[in-house]
Specification:
The protein is α+β, with helices and mostly antiparallel strands. The strands form three sheets. It has a six-stranded antiparallel sheet, sandwiched between helices. Strands 8-9-7-12-13 form a five-stranded mixed sheet, sandwiched between helices. The radius of gyration is 22 Å and the shape is globular. The protein starts with a helix and ends in an 18-residue tail after the last helix.
Length: 327
Amino acid sequence: MEVHFLFKLIKSLTGQTTLSSLTMAYKAILSEHFENTSFSVFELQPTRLGTEKNSSIMCVDCEFDQGSFLLSDSIPFAQAVDQCEPVIAEEHGRELFIFPVVLYDNSISHIIVIKHCYADQTQRDLLLGLQEIVTDIFRSIHEKGYDPLTRILNRQAFDQTAAELAYSQQGKNLIKSLSAIAILDIDKFKEINDRFGHAIGDEILLLFAQTIRSVLRREDLFFRYGGEEFVIFVKDVEQEQAQQVLERCRLAIEERRFPQVGQVTVSIGFTDLDSHFHPVDNLSKADKALYFIKNNGRNKVFSYEHLVNSGQLQPIAPKEGSADFWD
């Protein structure tokens, strides 16, 4: 491969600003220039098995092409995470480059894997070098949208997703798979901070996020929106099913016992994600439902549509020219 052409490929990767666009660009390069290779990205998610108190780590394929599996079930994956270093392994006659995405706090968010069967050392080394570059770019993009405390997506990642929904062609495809948007607010969180201190408050936020993530489906998008507020994009369900997904979240928090604090509850307002409305209107509807819950007992899940249809809320009229909200 010509040096100038190699630089051109690298430039096409470094110019990407989202993980999805980076993944697509890299897959295109592999498809066009490298035969018999496959590329996968696995997100590491904490999960609880049965009645076990300690959480395990699940490897979840970000493209949903493969089933999830426990990190402990894969020796090379576990080795890469344990050592925080790339591991090279073999599987069914193919070589695997297993790269952990090590963040600035030394935690690992993802594992990137290339499978190939190149005997030529030059091609193999070139592929290995590209993998190192892609992993570095992936890390940089991910850290910008990563909340270091709760280890989930942050407000910046939410804003980017919302902007895609509002403006881009990619958003038109994305919104087809999204069904609802929900806002979660930890009840009386200020009282927790005032009584137990901010260190305990931070622990509550971390455990809260882990608990919600463990009961959400892997295709749902989960963000820390700010402070004790979180946002979920629920995928591919009707409103009744979205209610069930979110009710599982509420119940999981209610039933968990948090260190020192004991019981913590959460209020959840949500609405259908309507492609005919600007994202600011959908978010405002979910927020209005949340505000109603906060003033009527807390620890509940209500949809905006239910509250409007029952006469408990006045409908929100769609706004024009609200693009600045996402800037």
